[in-house]
C-alpha cells in the first residue's frame, strides 16, 4: 500500500512539472531583455540586470513584435492587449454587487446566457464568464511605438518614467525620432512576422 501511495504521489509531482509554462528570455543590450512565457504573444520588454532570467521591470507590456537597438536607444513596436482592457470594463463590480457595464457594446464578448439588466439608469450583468476572440490579444488593429533612451541606464538614477517614450501613431513616432536624435540607420527587426 505504501508503494502505491508513493507511486501515485511521484506521478502527480512529475506530471505537475509538465504543466509549468516555459519562459524564454532574449538579451538585447545592457540590462534590457525581451521575455515571454508560453507563447510569443506574451513577449514584453524588461529591464533586468540578469540577462538570462525572465522578468524584471516591465518597460513595454505584451505584445512586442519588433525591436531595434544600439548602445543608447531601443525602438520597439507593440500591439496592445485589448482583451485585458475589455475584461477590466466587463468585470468591474460596484457597490450593487453586480458587474456594471461602462460600455454596453462589450456585451458581445460575454457568455450568451449571461443576465443583462438595467438598474438605476445603468446597465449590469451577472457574470457567467466570457469567451474573448483571439483577435483581442494581440490587438493587431492598433500599433504603439516606443523609444527608450538607455544612454544613462547604468546609473542608479535611471528612471523609466523619464526615459520611455510612447507614441500611438507612426507620424508621432517619426517626429519623436527626430526630436530625440534617433539615428536613421536604426531599423526595426521583426521578431515574429505573424504578429506584425
TrEMBL record:
This is Lipoprotein.
Amino acid at each position: 500500500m505504501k508503494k502505491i501511495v508513493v507511486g501515485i504521489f511521484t506521478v502527480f509531482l512529475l506530471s505537475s512539472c509538465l504543466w509549468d509554462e516555459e519562459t524564454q528570455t532574449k538579451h538585447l543590450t545592457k540590462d534590457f531583455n525581451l521575455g515571454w512565457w508560453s507563447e510569443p504573444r506574451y513577449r514584453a520588454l524588461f529591464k533586468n540586470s540578469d540577462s538570462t532570467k525572465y522578468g524584471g521591470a516591465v518597460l513595454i507590456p505584451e505584445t512586442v513584435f519588433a525591436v531595434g537597438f544600439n548602445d543608447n536607444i531601443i525602438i520597439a513596436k507593440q500591439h496592445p492587449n485589448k482583451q485585458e482592457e475589455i475584461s477590466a470594463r466587463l468585470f468591474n463590480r460596484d457597490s450593487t454587487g453586480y458587474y456594471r457595464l461602462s460600455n454596453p457594446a462589450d456585451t458581445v464578448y460575454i457568455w450568451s446566457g449571461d443576465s443583462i439588466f438595467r438598474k438605476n439608469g445603468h446597465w449590469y450583468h451577472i457574470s457567467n464568464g466570457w469567451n474573448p476572440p483571439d483577435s483581442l490579444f494581440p490587438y493587431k488593429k492598433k500599433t504603439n511605438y516606443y523609444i527608450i533612451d538607455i544612454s544613462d541606464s547604468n546609473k542608479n538614477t535611471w528612471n523609466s518614467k523619464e526615459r520611455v517614450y510612447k507614441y500611438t501613431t507612426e507620424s508621432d513616432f517619426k517626429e519623436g525620432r527626430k526630436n530625440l536624435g534617433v539615428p536613421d540607420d536604426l531599423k526595426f527587426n521583426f521578431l515574429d512576422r505573424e504578429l506584425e
